[in-house]
Amino acid sequence: MVRNVKQRSAGTSVRCRCASDAIADALRGEIVGCRYRTGERLPCVDDLRNRFSAGEFAVRSALHKLRDEGLVSIVKHVGAVVTGKSSRSWKGHVLLIRTSAACSFAPQRFTMHIAAQFEAAGWMAHPLFLKVDQNGCCDVKPIVRHLAGGVACAVLCTGSKQIPDLMESAGVPYVVVDGYTREFPRARAVIRYATHGGYADLIDYLRKKGVGNLLEVDYERQMDRSFKAQLAGSGITVRRVLCKRERRGELGLGDVREMGHKAVAQFLMDGASRAKLPDAVLFDDDYLAVGGVFALLQAGVRIPEDTLVVTMSNRGNAMLAGVPHSRIEFDPDSMGDCVAKYVLACLEGRKARPKSSEARFMASQDF
Prior knowledge:
This protein has 367 residues and is α/β, with parallel strands linked by helices. The chain has helices at residues 2-32, 45-52, 56-68, 105-120, 141-148, 162-170, 196-208, 225-232, 253-269, 271-275, 286-298, 332-347; strands spanning 72-75, 79-82, 93-99, 124-130, 153-157, 174-177, 189-191, 193-194, 213-219, 237-243, 280-283, 308-313, 326-329, 357-358, 360-362. Strand 3 (93-99), helix 4 (105-120) and strand 4 (124-130) form a beta-alpha-beta unit.
């Protein structure tokens, strides 16, 4: 009986291997024949299973073969994206590493945009999204596997010191996105958003709306110095409500919404605060805004009759549909362009100076 089980298992393995080869051959032909062009995403695993009447293992094996050949790039939460290049044509490998509480729209969009820039220039980009545990540490095994194969450079979107230390021990130069130079003194460069222009537009907008006092709902951190300096000379007074973490480690999107709701609800419980509402409420994050706006509505605050709502967003606050608001937007595409241009210039031996990406203020709904 044992022999029969082994024979059946072996037969199943052979069938899966043959199915994956057939799927890979079909998709390869369609990519070469330009049915799927560079930058386009292949159908999802479930669609490919239905099309080829195959199992999930066979489909994923086929996609991994195409990835190893350099025809597609597989990105978590996105899928298989066509690169249209042979693996032998890559100039080298670049790691794009992000550790974040939640891989929302903006981080994914930024990562895909910068990966496309590298691959268009002939460099193989490897996007890695790593989860952080309650102690602030992450599993670095995926990074170690890539380092063993040779990496020319790394782009880090992380506040953790664990990954920069790993890059330094491996002798891999790295660039930090949206960090502080004092925290990463050995980084090749630290590239940040240039917020001065965006905040100037925001303050000008608030003054035109007659805002004299502003409530800022923010995380537990220092207010942006550029924003603080511009507010000081604008005549707008600011009160701050800090959203406190209930627990250490990774935060989900639901946790962030809850933080915003709790912070605003506690603020409104104070009789003096409830009696004298601010002219405008500025939320530092779109997910904070969802929770905070819900708390305002629960308390009977009319928007925009009682107060204005302004949010900082990377996705246009689609979640606030139906609620009048304005937003200051940090564009992940322009930030990706700045990072890619600098790193590519360094890799190809050209002189480069990192430039910041400007923020933009956009009124999504006029009050």
